[in-house]
């Protein structure tokens, strides 16, 4: 790895050997972010915001007990339940059931998101590349996309037997539309000059597609993947509330029915953390595949 040290002694972006694997590149990128002064400042501000939010939560629920908030569990109550070896409501960091819920939700998301990516990215690329195909398919996409995921629940249950398939289908559906639309917008955002330049240099259509269209659309594709991951979690939780035996969505709804309010907050925070890690993983991979879009540091 070679480094070019600027005059102001700020840490530069690492330059990786061509043969270095993506996993190794991600590792070096993470180490660079950790040791970067601007990243440390950003991390400090982020942590400060979280601490302030928890403090405000404590004030309105446990200290002042404001109206409309007095029935909500405070952070101390939730924390005691979360770290208890013998939790009052049966769910804590030491219980096996807690990790089963995380495992089932994560597995469903990975399957739904994987299928949505495998289908949505090629379809979006082809819609942007081929005007005839776009004219055929775009009206269908725009007709189905605004339909809320919950409206698909009866049809999902009719189409798919068992408990898992409808849940995965609903999570896939939301992620699929976001991925297709962002990929299409990515292709449409490419300047026409690049197509003309490639054609003048004798590039064939397949070369233009793989050397111009795909790289040019990558920033929009990864933005769509992040959005798709978020809406997939949203849809998954809603589906698990309606049909499921395990999962964070099922845990939230079951805890509400049983008036186990601290468990609701535990499941919600866990859901947010897992969703954040999934989106962060997508961003890391995207940065390594699109290093030309990284802005240089002053």
Characterization of the model:
The protein has 2 domains: 23-76, no CATH class; 96-293, MetI-like (MetI-like fold, Orthogonal Bundle), CATH 1.10.3720.10. The protein has helices at residues 22-35, 37-63, 75-82, 96-129, 131-144, 153-159, 164-188, 192-200, 205-242, 248-257, 261-289. With 298 residues, it is mainly alpha-helical.
Secondary structure elements and their pairing?
Elements: H1 22-35, H2 37-63, H3 75-82, H4 96-129, H5 131-144, H6 153-159, H7 164-188, H8 192-200, H9 205-242, H10 248-257, H11 261-289
Helix pairs in contact: 3-11, 4-5, 4-7, 4-9, 4-10, 6-7, 7-9, 9-10, 9-11, 10-11
Q: What portion of residues is helical? A: over 70%
Summing up helix and strand content along with how strands pair, one would put the structural category as: mainly alpha
**Average pLDDT rating:** 87
Low-pLDDT stretches are 8-18
Largest sheet: number of strands, sense, barrel closure: none
Write down the CATH topology of the largest domain.
Answer: MetI-like fold
What is the number of strand segments? 0
Distance between the termini: 21 Å
Structural domains: how many: 2
Radius of gyration over all CA atoms, rounded: 23 Å
- The CATH superfamily of the largest domain appears as MetI-like
Report strand %. Answer: under 5%
**Shape summary:** globular
The tally of helices reads: 11
CATH architecture of the largest domain: Orthogonal Bundle
Quaternary class: single chain
**Given this structure, which CATH class of the largest domain is correct?**
Mainly Alpha
Order of helix and strand elements from N to C terminus = HHHHHHHHHHH
């Amino acid at each position: 790895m070679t480094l070019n040290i600027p005059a102001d002694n700020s840490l530069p972006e690492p330059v990786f050997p061509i043969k270095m694997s993506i996993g190794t590149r991600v590792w070096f990128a993470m180490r660079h972010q950790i040791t970067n002064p601007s990243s440390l400042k950003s991390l400090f501000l982020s942590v400060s915001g979280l601490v302030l939010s928890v403090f405000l939560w404590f004030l309105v629920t446990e200290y002042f007990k404001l109206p409309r908030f007095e029935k909500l569990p405070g952070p101390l109550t939730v924390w005691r339940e979360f770290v208890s070896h013998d939790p009052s409501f049966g769910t804590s960091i030491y219980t096996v059931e807690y990790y089963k819920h995380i495992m089932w939700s994560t597995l469903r998301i990975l399957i739904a998101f994987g299928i949505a990516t495998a289908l949505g990215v090629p379809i979006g690329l082809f819609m942007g590349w081929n005007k005839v195909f776009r004219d055929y398919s775009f009206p269908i996409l725009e007709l189905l996309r605004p339909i809320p995921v919950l409206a698909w629940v009866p049809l999902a249950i009719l189409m798919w037997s068992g408990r898992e398939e409808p849940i995965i289908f609903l999570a896939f559906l939301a992620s699929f539309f976001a991925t297709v639309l962002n990929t299409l917008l990515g292709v449409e955002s490419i300047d026409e000059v690049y197509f003309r330049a490639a054609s003048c240099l004798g590039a064939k259509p397949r070369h233009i597609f793989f050397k111009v269209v795909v790289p040019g659309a990558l920033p929009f594709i990864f933005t769509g993947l992040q959005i798709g991951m978020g809406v997939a979690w949203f849809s998954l939780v809603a589906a698990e509330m309606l049909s499921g035996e395990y999962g964070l969505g099922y845990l939230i709804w079951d805890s509400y029915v049983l008036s186990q309010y601290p468990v609701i907050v535990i499941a919600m925070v866990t859901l947010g953390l897992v969703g954040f890690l999934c989106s962060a993983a997508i961003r890391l991979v995207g940065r390594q595949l699109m290093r030309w879009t990284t802005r240089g540091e002053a």
